[in-house]
Amino acid sequence: MNVGVLGCGYVGLALARGLLADGHDVVGVRRSQDGLQAVEEVGADAVQADVTDADSLASIPDVDVLVYAVSADGRDSEAARTAYVDGLRTTLDHFAGRSSPPERIVYTSSTGVYGDRDGEWVDESTPLEPRTEREGILAEAEEIVQEDRGWDWTITRFSGLYGPDRYRLERYLEGPVSDRYLNVIHRDDAAGVIRYLLETGNGRNEVVLATDDEPVRKPVLADWLADECGVSHPPRAEPTSERARASKRCSNEKLREMGYEYRYPTYREGYRTAIDTYQ
Predict the structure, then answer these.
(1) Which of helix, strand or coil describes residue 234?
(2) Residue pLDDT, tens place only, 200-241
(3) What whole-number distance in Å separates Cα of residue 64 and Cα of residue 2?
(4) What whole-number distance in Å separates Cα of residue 21 and Cα of residue 18?
(5) Phi and psi dihedrals of 93, rounded to 5?
(6) What's the predicted TM-score (pTM) here?
(7) Kind and range of the H or E element at 46?
(8) Cα–Cα distances in angstroms (integers) from residue 44 to residues 2, 20, 49, 51, 62, in the given order
């Protein structure tokens, strides 16, 4: 299988590494020169291109599968629209116009499309109710992916990513910590989910919610981390933004039924390396 990973960054590099180990060919696409070096270091073919520039996309070779894992340059709505709407549409229209288009597209979305559910459970069947401009952009992007372009598509909705270089222990240990549910998935499992769906053929023309086994209230996680690191529990505080107030519990039942086995099924396993390093 020949896979192109657009936005071959935090998750994309781990995905490329796993696919290469399984004998697949990988093209990693980044916009910056520094990003290209990271792609080369994992052993994938590196191509420099900008998803918002159709002419630059021509430098990417034909692939069997295209993974769109591009991240926004910032948290504001303008940056989100550029990456998840403008860049996405430009990219998909470009590849659909090729004489040999991909046979499958995988788009990495976010559980942010659910908005705030006041701690209720959500899954793939839960209707989207975006309440902010950014959430509306995320939902719009999913609609773009599902437009008929003659190929199969898969939308993976990831919960909060953590892992090497993104454990952010100090944020939890020092606080302050607001009370809401967190849903997380380790970077290696995020990459593992995509690889599993590609290699098994599961998830075609479907949405798959990718999160670990155990939603956890933020104070519970913070106190557990403090106990494991041997420090005092962090102080509490009221949330200061709409994003900080958003609370829901994400179900991975569908992914589990597909047969995916987590390397880090909960935060307890996932944070162990960070805790050991801290100690």
Answers:
(1) coil
(2) 999 999 999 999 999 999 999 999 999 999 999 999 998 776
(3) 5
(4) 5
(5) -65, -40
(6) 0.96
(7) strand 45-48
(8) 11, 7, 15, 19, 15
